[in-house]
Design a protein that fits this description.
The complex is a heterodimer. By secondary structure, chain A is an alpha+beta fold. Helices cover 48% and strands 10% of the residues of chain A. In chain A, helix 4 (131-151) runs antiparallel to helix 7. By secondary structure, chain B is an all-alpha fold. A four-stranded antiparallel sheet of chain B has the order 1-2-4-3, covered by helices on one side. Classes of the chains: A alpha+beta, B mainly alpha. Bound molecules: iron/sulfur cluster and zinc ion. Zinc ion is lined by residues 121, 123-124, 129-130, 132-133 of chain A.
């Protein structure tokens, strides 16, 4: 495991190297500048840095990529958060009349954190994760990605591994960035199915008719449920976890719960037990109107994505930036390529120690050749910049930056359209 | 609107045009002159109506049968329109429909003046006006609804018959009110999802590629959305022109009075600062805190931690009952450092937000304690949270257990659960109050946790306890456990503290 090499004590020593030679500043700037379609979009963006000893500095802002680079190399933040685009430069927020400094736009963001699933995973708890429960994140991404694209019509979704125990989604479409607080919360609520706190036993209740969105989500959940819940978490194996599942079945005149309890006595195999439960649900659907979807509700309660609605709601809410380091694990917050979602392994995400080490490895002959080629081509006009490009390409960060580039290309195509429209308009007048 | 007689512009013609329809978008301000007396009565009566709407919205499901019936009766009693038909005949007594419409129009605009001044007032006003509009729009005959859309130029894209056929199943499954047959008969409109957020939020509409597909009978949502947007824009505009109105010395006091009259007390002004000592909180939480706060307090004591939602709800409540900033800091710090947070981390990560609540950081707004409405409606608790309203957010089964632990009688519990089932959360809370204070009929209508606290103190003996208890720790002879000190964090071990609380408890019973 590469992460075993990481020791948070050496962070102050390696961060400077990371920000000097590896952080993908040009892609980063390209992203947040959004093609320069809107004036001051990058300049009015809030960044916030967490420095050594948990010192937290908000309302940082930068006029150019160069300034951002210089500042990050000077401060060497342990963690970077991205906030909203404000009406004024955030670093001058004290100088503008109070009340006029306002958050105007931001990507629509989602934060899914494994700690919110503690009642439905038995393999780990709190900040720990393992390949077994990581499936929950895979399910979450599948479901939300589909809904945000097909239902809401968004196209530019960047999924990012948080570096520790969750994932973030940045919806970067122009329409998403312009959403009001009310609209953000409506979207987040549309996407939320699991309701209630520790105090709630039954967290998913379906009513007829089942909305197309829920049907689509169930298709995903049904695909993963047998492996995730029945095998990996063994929810129908041990007594306590069986009881937890049965507590979600209707305790009615037909004694569904009791009946299942008895049937389970003679049948130990989780798959068969689940089948018995499903049969019972089917029988129910013929006889009663209430509670008839309980098998679906159970699957959703165990597998459906749990969103932190508050993060999505606020325009001015801060969220950890892609390519920021996670100070606890040392892992880089990398974008996730959905084409490889099934095989994405959070434990294989490079740590800052690993990629810094890779920099020091002697170059292979092949690499040298290549770099000579590029050097000739670029005529050494911007050596620092091109060296940095070659630097990250020599590390395991390369494939994530490459994917980020592809994502940005996709967005560029859409704002090219915007710019054309604008210049056409100008011609007209 | 003219308040002086400088310009007289009034034609019966425009009057008839203006009040020819039962419902309007309030696009045009009234142009006539009105007397100050009329000004005042109109305004006060509309406020009463809006206040009624707020109360009904709390006690009943909006637009349910009992809600609309009650609202109808109230509208009638206050001489506001309550029937969509215009009836020109002079009724036996009371104003004609025309006169009512005029009153509706004028009073709406007066309240705009009074309620445009702050964000909170605007939000309250918009909410009630929107609910009123929804009620009235729903009351229109289908034909009148169509006329209304035409008159106000509300045109929405209709989807074609083929599209409708193709989407039939999805449409039927997305709307509670649609069956296969009605889809064929109804027009279905396609609008950007941003224009129908209420339907999106509750998943009551089919959504595809950023558009919602709304059957005609749900059109009210977009109309209301339109109404809300217009009204909020109009209020912002009015706010900007307000200085002119404010320089009118006849109007200004009246408007200020109006805006304060009916939104209820906000409990942000602390009358009791310093009257409560930190040692009292444990005992007060059992005696005088509403269930929501009692629950948060308990989990704070157990976990030595609270997440953001809980800190805000509870912190502001404590501020409302009279904790000073210094006390609040001490309270949170001493609890948090018993958990995973050390003093240093507390000062760095949490002290800021405590000061923030007291308006000492950030925007320096003095935050007001949350009302029941706010607790019940916004920011529902999720995994790991302890805030919210237990009557609304706890599983009924768990609520029942909790009430048993708190020694509410079985009959009391079943009454409370019955109210919860009917979604009357505040009434359930009031029942809990009656049960725990041994009163037959609480003589207040609950809408704020801090109000609960004040009423409880009253019921327990006129708030004298607070006074007495504050003095208590300073009189060592009254506390037999010995060694009490004035500063709570000096209480060496938790056992001491527990005993002390118990002792204070007994004080309460004496009183
Ligand atoms: S009704 Fe109000 S005071 Fe009572 S528990 Fe709920 S929020 Fe608290
Ligand atoms: Zn695990």
């Amino acid at each position: 495991m590469p992460s075993s090499d990481y020791d948070s004590a050496c962070l102050p020593d390696i961060l400077p190297l990371y920000y000097r030679r590896l952080f993908p500043f040009s892609q980063y700037y390209r992203w947040l500048n959004y093609g320069g379609v809107q004036k001051n979009y990058f300049q009015n963006r809030e960044f916030s840095f967490t420095l050594k000893d948990d010192i937290y500095v908000r309302y940082q802002s930068f006029t150019t990529q160069n300034e951002l680079e210089k500042e990050m190399q000077k401060m060497n933040p342990y963690k970077i958060d991205i906030g909203a685009i404000y009406s004024h430069r955030p670093n001058q927020h004290n100088t503008v009349k109070s009340g006029t400094f306002q958050a105007l736009e931001k990507e629509l963001v989602f934060d899914i954190d494994m700690t919110d699933y503690d009642d439905v995973r038995s393999c780990c708890s709190a900040a720990d994760i393992c390949p077994k429960c990581w499936t929950l994140m895979t399910i979450a991404i599948h479901i939300l990605d589909r809904a945000l694209r097909d239902d809401f019509g968004f196209q530019h979704l960047l999924w990012v591994y948080s570096g520790r125990r969750g994932v973030h989604c940045w919806v970067c479409d122009e329409a998403a960035r312009k959403l009001s607080v009310a609209a953000r919360s409506a979207v987040a609520e549309y996407l939320s199915l699991v309701k209630g706190s520790d105090e709630t036993v039954k967290k998913v209740v379906l009513t007829d008719p089942i909305h197309p969105f829920i049907r689509e989500s169930l298709v995903v959940v049904e695909r993963y449920f047998p492996r995730y819940a029945l095998q990996d978490q063994d929810v129908l194996g041990r007594k306590e976890s069986v009881d937890k599942v049965l507590a979600l079945t209707p305790d009615d005149i037909l004694f569904t719960t009791c009946k299942l309890q008895q049937e389970f006595q003679n049948e130990k195999k989780p798959e068969i037990r689940w089948k018995l439960l499903k049969d019972e649900a089917k029988r129910k659907q013929g006889t009663s109107k209430k509670n008839q979807h309980f098998e679906k509700e159970i699957m959703l309660q165990y597998c459906y994505p749990r969103l932190d609605v508050n993060v999505s709601k606020g325009v001015n809410h801060l969220l950890k930036s892609p390519f920021s380091v996670h100070p606890k694990t040392g892992r880089i917050s990398v974008p996730i390529d959905l084409k490889e979602l099934e095989t994405f392994d959070p434990f294989a995400v490079p740590t800052i120690s690993l990629i810094c080490e890779e920099l020091d490895r002697p170059r292979t002959v092949e690499e040298d050749e290549k770099s000579k080629e590029t050097k000739d081509k670029e005529n050494e006009k911007d050596t620092a910049e091109s060296r940095k490009i070659r630097d990250y390409k020599r590390t395991s960060l390369a494939k994530y930056v490459k994917y980020f580039d592809q994502f940005l290309d996709g967005m560029a195509r859409s704002w090219k359209g915007e710019l054309l429209k604008k210049s056409d308009l100008q011609k007209d007048f | 609107m003219q308040f002086s007689s400088r310009r007289k512009k009034f034609t019966t013609n425009s009057q008839a045009e203006l009040y020819g329809e039962p419902l309007q978008f309030y696009g045009q301000p009234p142009l006539e002159n009105i007397s100050l007396t009329e000004f005042e009565t109109f305004a006060v009566e509309r406020l009463k109506l809006l206040k009624t709407i707020e109360n009904l919205g709390v006690s009943y499901v909006k637009m349910s049968e009992s809600y609309t019936k009650k609202l109808g009766t109230e509208s009638k009693a206050l001489n506001f329109l309550y029937r969509p038909e215009a009836d020109d005949r002079k009724p036996q007594n009371g104003p004609t429909e025309q006169e009512k419409r005029r009153k509706d129009h004028i009073s709406h605009f007066i309240l705009r003046l009074a309620y445009c001044q702050t964000e909170d007032l605007r939000r309250w006003f918009i909410q009630q006006e929107v609910d009123l509009f929804r009620y009235r729009f729903n009351d229109l005959h289908p034909k009148q609804k169509l006329e209304f859309l035409h008159r106000n130029n509300l045109q929405y894209d209709r989807i074609t018959v083929e599209e409708k056929k193709a989407l039939n199943d999805k449409l039927v499954n997305s709307s509670y009110a649609l069956s296969g047959i009605t889809v064929v008969e109804q027009d279905v409109y396609k609008v950007p999802f941003q224009d129908a957020l209420d339907l999106v939020r509750t998943r009551k509409v089919y959504l595809k590629a950023g558009y919602v597909y709304i059957p005609h009978q749900d059109i009210v949502t977009i109309v209301i959305n339109d109404f809300r947007t217009r009204l909020s824009k109009a209020l912002a505009l009015t706010a900007r022109s307000l200085p002119a109105v404010h320089s009118d010395e006849r109007l200004q006091p009246l408007l200020n009075h109006l805006s304060h009259a009916y939104v209820g007390q906000d409990y942000s002004i602390q009358k009791n600062v310093g009257k409560i000592s930190l040692e009292q909180i444990d005992s007060l939480s059992g005696k005088s805190f509403p269930l929501c706060m009692r629950q948060i307090h308990q989990s704070l004591r157990e976990n030595h931690h609270l997440r953001h939602g809980g800190r805000m709800q509870y912190g502001l409540f404590l501020k409302g009952i009279g904790l000073s900033l210094e006390q609040a800091l001490q309270f949170w710090r001493s609890e948090f450092i018993k958990g995973k947070v050390d003093a240093d981390k507390f000062d760095k990560a949490y002290a800021y937000s405590v000061r923030h609540m007291f308006g000492k950081e950030g925007k320096r707004t003095d935050y007001t304690p949350y009302s029941c409405m706010k607790v019940i409606l916004s920011n529902a608790p999720s995994q790991g949270d302890h805030h919210g309203c237990p009557f609304r957010h706890s599983d009924p089964e768990l609520l029942k257990q909790k009430l048993q632990v708190y020694k509410v009688s079985p009959s009391g519990i079943s009454q409370i659960l019955e109210l919860v089932k009917g979604m009357h959360y505040q009434l359930a809370c009031q029942k809990y109050f009656e049960q725990t204070h041994n009163v037959e009929d609480a003589s207040f209508s609950l809408n704020h946790p801090n109000q609960y606290f004040i009423e409880s103190q009253k019921a327990l003996g006129g708030g004298k306890e607070i006074k007495r208890e504050t003095e208590a720790p300073q009189k060592p002879q009254e506390i037999p456990t010995g060694g009490p000190s004035a500063a709570p964090e000096a209480a060496a071990n938790t056992q001491d503290e527990a005993e002390m609380t118990e002792d204070l408890d007994s004080f309460f019973q004496d009183a």
